[in-house]
Amino acid sequence: MLKKLKRNKIFLILIAIIIFYSNINAQYEKDINKDAPPLSKQYYRISSFESILTWSVASLNSEPYISELLIDPNDNLHIAYYDNTINSPVYMFGKDGNFKREILDKNRELGSLISIASNSDNIHISYLKNNKIWYANNNSGAFNNYAMDLRNNSKIIDLKLVVSTFNSPILFFINSKGVLSVSRFYRDNFFSDLVYTNKIIEKVYPVAENDGYAVYMKEYSTGNLFYASRKTNTAFRFFDNNPILNNVNQYTVEHEAHNRFNIIYNIKDNIKEIRYKKFYDGTFIDGIISAEDQNIISFDSTLDYASQPVVLYTKEDGNKYIYIDGQIIDLSILGKSVGEVRISAARYPEFYIAYYNTLFKELRISKLNISDIEK
Question: What is the mean pLDDT of residues 319-325?
């Protein structure tokens, strides 16, 4: 009799736990699928900007992994982040405060390294979960997830995703041994395209090109930055067989064409400074974006409407700044940040930025209007 009562008690406790977590999940599903309400929509005048619109899009325990920020032809922004509250990747899209969010993976586990890419019709997202690479697309109207079986159990330290000109998703990833691997996704399967072992690689920045792709990859020990490309059915070719930069710490790339690109970077010996290296039609041009009095902890870049670099960066004190049209503008009114920042150009004259606000513990989106600094 006592055993039966104990079994019944345990059974009831298990049912209660299941119901409790089901209710939490159902409530979060309900909340996350609603439009994110605007946190603030006020008129500011700061430095050269006259107005900034800001929206909260997620409440998070700490700074999240944030993907690239994409803007489509209809001015909708697309971004993905790894939600550390529910331990799941989330895709968000919309504009002007009307943002919708979608959980990509119902199996809640710790994850990181999230990347987003698109073609004319669909969104493609890759992320790391339990040291397994996952890829998701909405080709069928809803997101489907696919896991990549890795050949060894090495830790993945970098993961990027691009979509080729033939609408083929290509994943670039580096393991803890510094091996760069490239895989294509085709008809629900992954196919190895390249395994590069000649150098120990730490970071990779890939871009799609006509009939192939290019990569800007940083060597672990030296910080040397190499530029290489691969066309269909051809060998992996390096630009001039030499590094195009040395001693690099962080970097981003604005790639316009095979012989036209901008690299925004800082070096290990001086992380208070952001530099650029431009290659246009056979000529390199070097310069300085910003020299600060504090370490620069993160930055991202895009191109303006004259194909000139625009750089968003965060200093060690958490304040953000933007370099645009030869000016540096203080964005400290947006609050302090940690972690990654993202910027992308929308329809002229607007830019969107994404960042994590440390005071309110929120992922935020702000829209800047550059016509204010052209007056």
Answer: 94
